[in-house]
Design a protein that fits this description.
The complex is a heterohexamer, with 3 copies of chain A (112 residues) and 3 copies of chain B (427 residues). Chain A is an alpha+beta fold and 112 residues long. Chain A is built from 2 helices and 7 strands; from the N terminus they run E-H-E-E-E-E-H-E-E. In chain A, helix 1 packs antiparallel against helix 2. Classes of the chains: A alpha+beta (112), B mainly alpha (427). The structure holds adenosine-5'-diphosphate (3 copies).
């Protein structure tokens, strides 16, 4: 199994959720984050003074999938989250040794 | 003087006193919202402890130092504890307001003045040092200045020997705002810059609190300004109307400056503009007409909107803009009386025929006299307050110490000084 | 008319004015708590800018348009700036309240009325467009309606030619609430739905703010209703008591509806119920007895508890329920006077013998006359306000534009329009 | 008695009434900030529903039970609905305040007293059970106690048959604070401990709310204490000044205790100290001089600062310290009158020559009589309130049930009982 | 080494912490999250209107363990977090290349 | 590629960011957390009563790096975050199968 983690723009969450559900994802964990990548270095004027604001709010999605689905889910996220502007985010895939469903105690792919 | 109770005037002054007292917690929110999450409690506690210390000092000896007889300072004997004092000694005995009501009203001005200063020391001053500061400052700076301007026998009061005419400070342009502003500057200079000053924006952690603070300040300020008439009469009505109009104009002015300069009209700007306008109209509330009030509002709003940027230029960390708002708009208002005073509209001036009586402003045909008077009064308060505060701050610095360690500042003063954090996560 | 100052009545009216002014920031919290985190500042700024714009307009020409002589609108000449106006011109000269106090009191009603409308445009209206709207709407809608009802010479006032008896609108059922409610509907229709309307619940981001807002609204509303007596007397006492009882009944009623319908008595329901009850009792505060006040409270609470759901049925995005609460409960209260008016209990009606004087309500033996009168007055205001607001909104839409882009709406109007976010994370 | 309206006294009493009413939402914030995020709405709703229930009950039969004729309880006939009651029946007819103003003033005391109790039941009481409790408790406990102390004909009032002299309870030391404190203890005992009591610190989720609550409570308390004079006069001035000084002293005292004992002066301590001082000075506001007020402040602050820890020792879950603050400081203030009463300074006592008139305190030369009187009055109220409340709580427990399930308590009472969470995350 | 991540009901945190301490865990990192799985689709009435609420608040626990302990820790979490109701959560295990303790700079199993 | 996750003291974030930028890191994701390790068991006095506070606020940094850079980034974090006191934090490294940049759809090392 794999864990797909996506850092996206907060206002694309609805679109991304729709897209991954369309490719069969049954569950997701969402949390708040902030970050920078290429987007670094945007300046802001506050009370007449200029500042560099580099941490921009983002939303993190974590999705456990079967190995075979990782690529499809990644692609679905990328296309749904894309606006083409800097700051769109990152998606990465990590191998998972085991998954358990708390309610039932099932393990492995059954637990997804 | 004989005392005949006027229940209407007394009713108004009781309420006005409660309103002014509310301004200090309001300030706690105005300031508390502007700091970062890690210093909000300390910021608020600086206001709250001011109430605690000054209220006690006031009844013990403060009232006497301020309103007792004497040229440079009042003689407090006979006023210790404020017990069994005849209502004929009331500051407003002539309009039937009892002694203790007026004594309480004046207490609230002392309280808020010292609390105002705390804006310049955000995030980094030891709470014990602040507590000592409130006690020393109120005694050595506030009481003398208030005595000079408001006791009736002081050197900047009615028919004094210094200014060409009698200065006008209806509700505290010099005593409260210029005084606190100059003190804030001195204290900020002695304390030094916060870590990250000029590099990090130190954004307000909760702007709704700032707006709540501004709103409650405005609400309370009606007591401050219209209450300074000491009665419920047409002059109180004029002071009230001007206290509505000037901050409205100042808010609009500040927002226009921001929109043009920065591209956005901010809520912090609206809140700050309101306060700037309130400060500006404070000395002038009963001596200008509506046009004068609008003008003072606009001037205060524009001046302070630009002045809050000066700290970056000159490199003093007046953290929450006590200088930019209170000193600058306090100056604007105090001087603007020399331009816009319209004495037939506002207060009925007892002894108006007197050669030392205040004159109309420059634009109202009174020439430059009143402007000169106002400038002298303002200047003297700035210098006195700045110098005295600097000395007090130095004395505290080299005895118990003024500033928390850098570690504490970075980790957050709330936890280190108060053992608390403002917000606890849900569990 | 001669003028003799009554310090007691003046004291009360000064305080009442400050109380009513506090209602607008209170509304900023009531509304601000209801929106999502990304639009709270914009929501609050719409109230604050209303104070700024309307206060200035009021002293410049608004008072004159409202209370100057003239059938459809007042003649403002002689009132520009509100300077040097004799206290004998005071709306409450007869009870010794100075002109400027009454002028300031009336200003606060104009301010809050336009601010109320902002509830229907949450999350999506350009701040510049709103600012222009406040200026135009107050001039073209509020001043004419207030003139019609309250100037004494208007077409819906005392002894008018239209209604069978004189309409009763003690503190603003038609002028303030029905007026704002109808305007809110028109503006929401022109603006259109928010993205996600009907699909997402748009839950309040901070319910304690909503409760704070409701509490301060209630507090201020005592100035609004009991102040509308223009003096401190038994009728003010009746208005006060009714303003305590009706919202209490409305809160209970709303909570009972929720408990039965949804299974939970919510804090949003309590806050909304209080406001509904306050709206309902506003026109009737001095003309019903305690039973009438309880009845109006219950009717308002129940009616508005159901009415807030109508927007989903009919598909207009009255975001924070200006229609459901202010229009509906404003109607309930205005019409209920026709049922419950008990003129021997409340106000002493000058000229009570007059055939055009108001009559007791249907349940108090006065027949249908007063009900008809109230319905006509309410209906005329609804139509006038709705039509005029619709036209103004269209005019703004096709000139400077009303609505922010969808991107801005989704990302949050605070950042785009004000360059700020309400809360900054701790660091 | 004849009635001549005094507009000044009436103005003050109208405002005082609004101020006292504001105290209940203020309490909602004081308490609401102290609980964890998951119970803030329930905490606030307990205060809000108290306003709803008690306001209605008051006009229906509560006023009559409290102020009607009769030894143990008032006869409400003639007072149902409070309509058409002559102003000569006003509690303050002698100083020209209309009946309904005084009736509304007294209503606000009943409201806040029941709301105060809610502090001891945080996080775990069914909302329906609380609602029933407010109705039953106000009827069976508050009205009888208020009748006994304040009706003028009750068993603990002026010239009663029980105490050696007439007890002094100017603004509610026994009726409000001791009463609520004893009730809070009984209710907490019946309800039992929260899960985690003594192990988890249950830290306040939002200390700025606590400070906002404390500030608004203080603001409103000027209406409570100075309003209890029923007019705007020198005695009101004394009550006002004492209400400024005592909480200031109590705040300082509490902070000193904390600093010494725990190492930190906390904001929760400042807020709690203010409230303790306000409670302490409540019965004594008009009968002690400034030194007495300072002493009562210090005693209240110190006593309550230690008393809030007792719940851990004795194992009752008085969650937000109704016992530690209201019962203990209510006792301190009530008894301290026996030490510090200085009857020539405060109120002018009608019938001062009477052998049953109150006497000066022990330290002011009056001997032990007044102390004995105060102790008897306080003791009787404690016992009556505790026993009655215990019985009421038991009755509710074994009928509709008092407490939510442990699951609900852990997951959060807001969601389960009100279907809401206080804060929604940004999206 | 392994990283065990658990998404659980917020009110089960105390029980789970006790359970993992019992099996020898010495440290844990906790954060807030929200999510859905089978729990999706619960409706709520708000102001008389019905809504689907699908993101339910959860707590995330992250625990670094030695390879041999991963299964035991997973089991401990599952049994302590289980209420048997939908929404109980998920646990997953990811391989870890290296761990460092910041205070000392130690690496590997010593750093746990 | 690797994912370096660091749990550090909130007030060391600026220093750590400077340090990792110095070793070539181009982006980072930041979020809030809380936790305990050796730091467990610190007591606090509140309202005169003593409590054990064990969850201390921390900041989580996540940094995607190329395999070769993982060690250098880890070291940079450790030295910049170190104060030598208990509670300094943890850093761990997890293998990553794939990374995608949302804006462009690039995959692999190009997406970093
Ligand atoms: N190397 C990285 N490691 C971890 N997170 C990253 C990295 N680079 C980017 N991110 C995350 O992705 C978000 C969007 O990055 P962005 O500015 O669009 O960079 P890019 O141009 O690489 O897509 C950032 O806010 C950050 O949270
Ligand atoms: N496939 C998944 N990927 C990531 N997180 C998941 C996934 N499925 C469930 N979760 C997380 O587990 C939590 C509980 O899931 P739950 O509704 O009980 O689903 P299940 O029936 O699979 O246990 C969810 O709120 C979500 O945070
Ligand atoms: N075994 C672990 N698994 C996950 N996170 C841990 C672990 N041990 C420590 N941490 C995290 O590192 C932070 C700092 O740990 P610290 O108390 O300094 O422990 P150590 O002494 O092991 O460095 C903790 O607050 C926690 O967030």
């Amino acid at each position: 199994m794999k864990l797909v983690t996506a850092i996206i723009q907060p206002h694309r969450v609805d679109e991304v959720r729709a897209a991954i559900e369309a490719v069969g994802v049954k569950g997701v964990t969402v949390s708040e984050a902030a970050g920078y990548g290429r987007q670094k270095g945007h300046t802001e004027v506050y009370r007449g003074a200029e500042y560099t604001v580099d941490l921009v709010p983002k939303t993190r999605l974590e999705i456990l999938v079967e190995d075979a689905d990782a690529a499809a889910v990644t692609d679905a996220i990328v296309s749904a989250a894309q606006t083409g502007k800097i700051g769109d985010g990152k998606v990465w895939v990590v191998p998972v040794d085991d998954v358990a469903r708390v309610r039932t105690g099932e393990h492995g792919a059954d637990a997804l | 003087m004989d005392f005949t109770l006027d229940s209407g005037n007394t009713a108004w002054m009781i309420v006005a006193t409660a309103l002014v007292l509310l301004m200090t917690p309001a300030l706690a929110f105005f300031y508390g919202g502007m700091v970062r999450t890690k210093s909000v409690l300390n910021m608020m506690m600086m206001s709250f402890i001011s109430i605690g210390v000054v209220a006690i000092v006031w009844v013990v000896y403060g009232y006497g130092l301020t309103f007792g007889p004497g040229t440079f300072i009042g003689d407090p004997s006979g006023f210790y504890g404020l017990n069994k004092i005849a209502d004929t000694s009331s500051l407003a005995a002539g309009v039937g307001v009892p002694f203790l009501v007026m004594a309480a009203f004046q207490a609230t001005f002392a309280i808020i003045t010292v609390a105002l200063i705390s804006g310049s020391v955000a995030d980094r001053m030891k709470f014990a040092a602040w507590t000592v500061f409130t006690l020393v400052w109120i005694t050595l700076v506030y009481f003398p200045v208030a005595h000079a301007v408001w006791s009736g026998v002081g050197i900047l009061g009615w028919q004094n020997d210094i200014t060409p005419t009698s200065p006008i400070d209806f509700a505290g342009g010099t005593v409260v705002h210029i005084n606190a502003g100059a003190a804030g500057l001195a204290l900020a200079l002695v304390l030094g810059l916060r870590k990250g000053f000029g590099r990090e924006p130190f954004k307000p952690h909760n702007l709704p609190y700032v707006m709540l603070g501004a709103a409650l300040l405005w609400f309370g300020w009606f007591g401050f300004n219209a209450g300074s008439e000491f009665g419920a009469d047409p002059t109180a009505g004029r002071a009230f109307m001007n206290t509505l109009v000037a901050p409205a104009a100042a808010m609009l002015a500040w927002l226009v400056v921001e929109r043009i300069r920065d591209g956005h009209a901010t809520s912090l700007g609206a809140a700050s503009g309101i306060v700037a306008g309130l400060v500006g109209i404070t000395p002038a509330a009963a001596s200008v007409d509506s046009w004068g009030a609008i003008a003072i509002g606009v001037l205060s709003g524009v001046a302070s909107a630009y002045a809050v940027g000066l700290k970056y230029k000159f490199g003093y960390d007046d953290s929450l803009d006590v200088v930019g708002v209170h000193l600058v708009s306090g100056m604007v208002g105090t001087l603007a009386i020399g331009l816009f005073a319209n004495l037939t509209e506002g207060t009925t001036w007892a002894g108006a025929g007197d050669p030392l009586a205040p004159k109309d402003g420059l634009f109202y045909g009174g020439g430059f006299d009143q402007l000169a008077t106002q400038a002298i009064a303002a200047g003297m308060v700035v210098v006195f307050s700045f110098v005295m505060t600097y000395l007090i701050a130095m004395a505290i610095k080299y005895t118990i110490g003024l500033r928390v360690s850098e570690d504490v500042e970075v980790a957050g003063i709330d936890l280190a000084e108060h053992g608390e954090t403002a917000y606890e996560e849900a569990k």
